[in-house]
Amino acid sequence: MVVLKMESSEKLLSSRLLSLLKNGQWGKDDVVNLFKALAKEFNSSNEDFHTWLMKILHQVEIHKIQMSDLTFQNGKIVDHVKAKMNEIGTHEKSLDDIVDEIHQQGNIDEEMMSQVKDIVSSVSECLRFSESDSAAPHLQGIKQKLFKICKAVQTRSKDRITPRVTQMVSWCILVLSKSSRLVQVLTGEGKSCIVAMFAAYQAMMGKTPDIISSSPVLAERDAKEWFDFYKELNVTVDSNINKSERELKKCYECKVVYGTTVSFAADWLRQRFLRQDVRSERAFQCVIVDEVDSLMLDKGLEVVYLSTEIPLMESLNGILAEIWLIINQLKRLETGEILGPVQLLSQLLSEIITENKNIDQHSIVQMAVEAGIMPIKSLKQTKENMTNALKQLDNASVMQMVAFLTIFVKNIPIYFIKLYIEGPDGTLQKLQEISPADTNKRQEISVLLLGNGKCCVVHSEEDSLDPSLRKKIKKSYQSESAKELNKSRIPGLEDLISGKMQTWFGSALLATKLTLGHEYVLHGEGVAPVDYSSTGVVQNDMRWGEGLQQFLEMKHQTKLSNMTLITNFMSNVGLFKKYTNQIYGITGTLGDQTELDMVKKVYNGIDTCEIPSFRQRKLYELEGMIIAEEDEWIQTICKVVKHQVTPTVYRGPRAALIICETINLAEMFHKTLSDTISLVNLKLYVNNNLDNSTITNSTVQAGVVIIATNLAGRGTDLKVSGSVNEAGGLFVMQTFLPLNDRVEQQAFGRTARQGNPGSAQIIMCASHFSDNLKLMMGEKTSLTSLLSCPDNLSKQMSKENVFEKAVNRYLENRSSQNHDAMISALTALLTTNSGNLEKAKDARNTGVKNRLSGFLEKDIPEITQKEELFSVYLDFLDNIYEDDIFSDQRDVIVSSLHECWGLWLLMYFSQEKSTEKITSLKEQLKGDLLSAKQKLLSKQSPSSMVYYYIRAGNNLREQERLAESIEMYTKALEAGASVEIIPLYNRALATIMKKNTGYIAKALADLENADKAINSYKSHLAHILACVKSSRQDLTTEGDTLLSKQFQMKCMIVDQLKINIQDAVMKLKRTESRGGNVRLLDKHTIFLAEDSLKRAIIRRDMSLPERLALIVIEDFIKRGEIKRRDVNLAEKFALLYAEDNTKRAERRGDVILTERLLFLLLEDSIHSSQKILQELMLEYEHIRSLGLDTIFTLDTIFSLMGFLSKVFR
């Protein structure tokens, strides 16, 4: 046992000395000299040499002691190490030290720094000598304000501490800056305190600063934690997170407002676009941005928009479902080819013939006869037999198909057909090439022949998929009349479908490649993106565009959302630019010079400054590694982490943080490490939707391993125990090459905070490198040259063995000869090649420069142009609101204009027109909007969209202008409403209200047609569901999926409407037959539930959870006093039942046993009913947005005269 321990100690000694050279930035000669001095001093020690030496080297390492910090004159090197440890551990830098370090940056105004030094020096002295005084009357101007602010921090902040010199210096630099300024303050140095101090100063100067945090949680937390501080200075403060319109107005009346880019941008859109009065009096005077690099660089192009119900977008779900079904029928081969859906060769040829009008029917029959698949007599019946000729191929063998295609190309020499068959291993085997004589003018088609008349088109690349596949989609969604006109029958979307089909195919293909637990997660009842490359945050409020969100929802059969037609937006760049030259930011990582230069170009010469840490930072970066294969990479990381959290002869156990690129990899490491580390000590931190408080709010103890994504990087403050700091602090293992140096430094910033020790290391897997990174590396160096070379490793191990033996010989006989041999072996050991990790980082940084170049040259100009166009639209809206001519139908007209503007932007800006001069686009938009306005004035829809007519009809009906209302519903039907239910039902309602001659017959016809339209709509939903389910043949799902439950709710709503319609039809027929009249009662749409419940109770044809849900809705209708014009029912419902829950909680002690037992018996049904209830409320609001804002019930009125006139007519 002793021998094994000694061998382990010897190995550890070699690694410690090498670590000092590679990671401690010591020179080889310096390490040798230190070793000599320690070996000499050991002569008087009775401890084990290896253990004694490693303890000292460990202290040198974790306290980042440099050779220049030590002196060897008196021979007491150990005492010097201990003295330096104490000095580094407790010493805070002086004002002079900090100012000198800032001066060394060379980009700071000397005069300003002189002022900074004077202000901080004066205020620090007053704070030191007047701890009990709240004022320093001899201080004036900025000094007086800083003193007051510092006293408020002392007495009213959470920690009741005096601001550090570095914080006061940061504050002064921000205050003295004449325009925008960004400062870098290292993690753990008190950024939130600096932000609060500077915001308070701005408020004291009469400004209204907006503070932007990196997350809503931090915004709310900081506003709450610093509330007393601001109150002490008579400054009001609030946060704009999760507030109602009334609460927001009150919030923006405060001097200081905390929020996020999302909340500030959304509130501006509420004010400017939705005309809600939330921040009308507050100007964009000054902004203070925390984590400014992330928001300006990583998220600079993020766009915030307010979700608006655009009914026409729901019509696209059928097309998307068809695309998804077809894309999932594709097969991607390892060789790169993509096989299209299996189809009959006759179908493929029919498509070719339809496209080529030069191919006559007679020639097709001739080819079939010549190929021997039709008899000669068929030539006499050409028209009837062309289809039959192709049908003969439906059961043809491969050779028969080859024969026909050979004759086909011979007679129609514009095609070049490559034929393949499938090999035993699934690969393509070339069968034959059928080429025309003239090879210059030809269209190439590659086909895999499967036998029995079946085939697949072979695509060489994804771009070639769109032309052939879009025909199948268009064919599926065209009525006969539409086919003749070559237009989609979906109203208002013809151009959109034509222009976006290729994009949607691309999105569907991308959805098949994206991985759950990597780029996205399942959250709630849908799909949420993950910002895995930068922050690791699950972005709950973010949705992918261009159909990608919907395809991912179909992939997992979650609830299906509608594609968004963006009608309003604000980018982070646009938001920051509203503050002109009053942008102030703080971050732990400003970035390299390339990134700084880009920020200065975008934000007009914004200045930057790096603030030194208040204590020497003790981050010890271990040499990084690149491992070739994934298995070896996993084993290496687990071995390194296990070593760090296990005690050794020279230190106790540490704690470790492993940062993984994706959630899946984090979960894999968690599972792998559980074989060697207790599950109690393994913590998983990968999803911000989970409760992570046990990790973020607890002290990390020795032996604990936190396995996380980038979520544990920026903004996470991990507190470690004293024993962990004594052992070397938190160890951070970065398992991949981060997106940029800033993300890397944010990860490393989780350790070595506030003067405590810590170390970090990167170990990457070469097989995980992106194609772009490999390409960058290929231009500079070969990938294999970056990997650990076995020969070099074996040579290094040999050197270690020689050194270990030399040390042992010296310990046995401390002769000068053995001493020299030991030093010689150490020198050889320290002669080693440096790692190649920097080459990979260089390639990464080249990629960063390329991205930033595109950011400046393409992305920023594009988003700026979009926002300029949006500004034109907002000005146009101003005129609409000011024009009295629209006063009676303003809401209808505005919603229609929103749709027109959204489609205009989507179609004209996306078609590679963003490079046109913005002036011409603006003029085009103004002209198109004026044209739309003129059409609306003449009560015409500005496009082929019918929803204007439905909304206008509803508005006119409310004004009792019934004839005009009926006319609008009729126009909606004539224009081809995709779902006819609503205009038919609404026209029947208006007809009954008007009661003209023959109104009963007209209303009956409309209601009976609406009843049929419901069946058609349900068939449409069933078709979408069938397409999605058919695409999931590889996976089995037990029970109902979220998607099927969603569609069940949709069907439940229209079934309730169907009951309502059938009841009205029955009463109208009875009235018509008896010569009576009807009395109409119109109600809110939610009353459909009440009627449905009555029917269900009588028939007993509804499940218990569904009945419970409807009972709650009936209760809500009564107690909520629902009016016909009520909107936002979900919000009203939540408020009412929140009060119930509060009252129930207050009387919980009085609940009788019977009630408890009843709840337990019905618990599952109650839980299910809550889900149904939630879905129903959403569907009621959705169907109202489509135009069904009112339902009606009828009472029959009979008279004797009416009955007699009917009998004797």
TrEMBL record:
In this chain the Helicase ATP-binding domain maps to: 172-307
Per UniProt, residues of the SecA family profile domain are 63-809
According to UniProt, the name of this protein is: Protein translocase subunit SecA
Q: Give the keywords, sorted.
A: Cytoplasm, Protein transport, Translocation, Transport
Originating organism: Cirrhinus molitorella (mud carp)
InterPro entries in alphabetical order: Helicase_ATP-bd, Helicase_C-like, P-loop_NTPase, SecA, SecA_DEAD, SecA_motor_DEAD, TPR-like_helical_dom_sf
Is Phosphoprotein given among the entry's keywords?
no
Q: SUPFAM superfamilies per the record?
A: P-loop containing nucleoside triphosphate hydrolases, TPR-like
SMART domains, sorted: SecA_DEAD
On whether Transmembrane is a keyword of this UniProt record, the answer is no
Q: Read off the Gene3D superfamilies from this record.
A: P-loop containing nucleotide triphosphate hydrolases, SecA, preprotein cross-linking domain
